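Hey,
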Amino acid sequence: MTDASQPQGVEEGTSILGELRKQWRGALVAFALVTVFGTVYAAAQGLIGSGLPYVKEARCSLGLVTCNLSYQQALGIARGIPSIGPDAIDAVPFRDRDSDEQFIAVVVRDKHNPPGVTAWFSVHLLHEAGGEYIDAPTRLHGFAQFLFGGHLLRIRKSYGATDMDGDGKLELYAVHESIGNALQSWKITVLDRRSSTYYHASAEDNLNLLRPNVNVSPSVPLPIQTWMVRKVDELAGVPFSSNSTSLGAALTQWVGDNGYGLIDRLQKTGERATVHLRSYPQAPVDLRWSHASIRQGSMDWLFFFKGPVVVYDRRHKAYSVVVQSQSGSWYGLRSAIAGKRYIWMQEQTLPVILVYSRSRHTVEAIRYGPSANPMELLHVRGESLFVGRTHIAIPREISLDGEFQHAQRARVF
């Protein structure tokens, strides 16, 4: 409502000035909040002052690591050990469950690696005894990159102490990471302190949206295998799902069911092996991540570059991992053909065709003479298979009667 005793222009000017005051106050509040947040964030990142205790003390207070020392105390104790000294760059104080013994896991920079944006490091375990700390170097070694401006959060992803198997005694681990133009890889070493056993895993991710391929021996206890898969997902930035049928869990289970290096062995020997499949009521992978697919009746065959072959039964809404390799020799598939009874898969770099029997659930490898052009694809002529002009000799026990009558091909890479 307008006051008749006040000129219209004065009211408008007052209203505009009031609005400007409100906006200015809002801007000041926003600036103050950004300043406070920036200061706290920089401190947590280790960019101002020592800064580093924020992360470590938070880990202790959240109960992820049981400890009664602050970060500053732990790091100070580590640097006071003659065998470590100023090369200690990070520390995690912890206690095992139901124990009063104090331990400190310490990251120690390699003496031959000057401070910079990369760090070769080893992990030492300090144990308090009689008021003194005893240094016990481990065989845990790692490598971290992109440590700009003293930023240690990457190192804190590359080592630590955590109870992987739920026995109350924390395992130690270290990660060696390597990042190239198109490939990201990790080597993880875990020390089970209860048995003094070291376990190893490797993983690689070709940055193609598929979860990284984790290579781990079936001899590694399953709880530690599961932790390794989750750790790789964390390192690769893959959101972790508690669903046990995630791709990482499905691939780990496939290795446990079929043995480590099964496909690699078949490539070398040409043997035939039965593949044990598990059905998952929910997808271990996102359909959109596949690089190629073939729909055949109620079955969808999904092919992943440098990854597994997955089949989806639309009628029963169930997924299974069919083929998965566990070594660096696996460069994935170039093409695949779905026939009447078999799935024919052309390897990308080796003159090998993997043949999967849909009824017997067996896989065997057929070698052929190298073609003139390594980019040539697997294709059908009548009742025969070729790669380019190279004919594929099919073993007699594989029936080709009507196999390729309605065959479909997919180019994977």
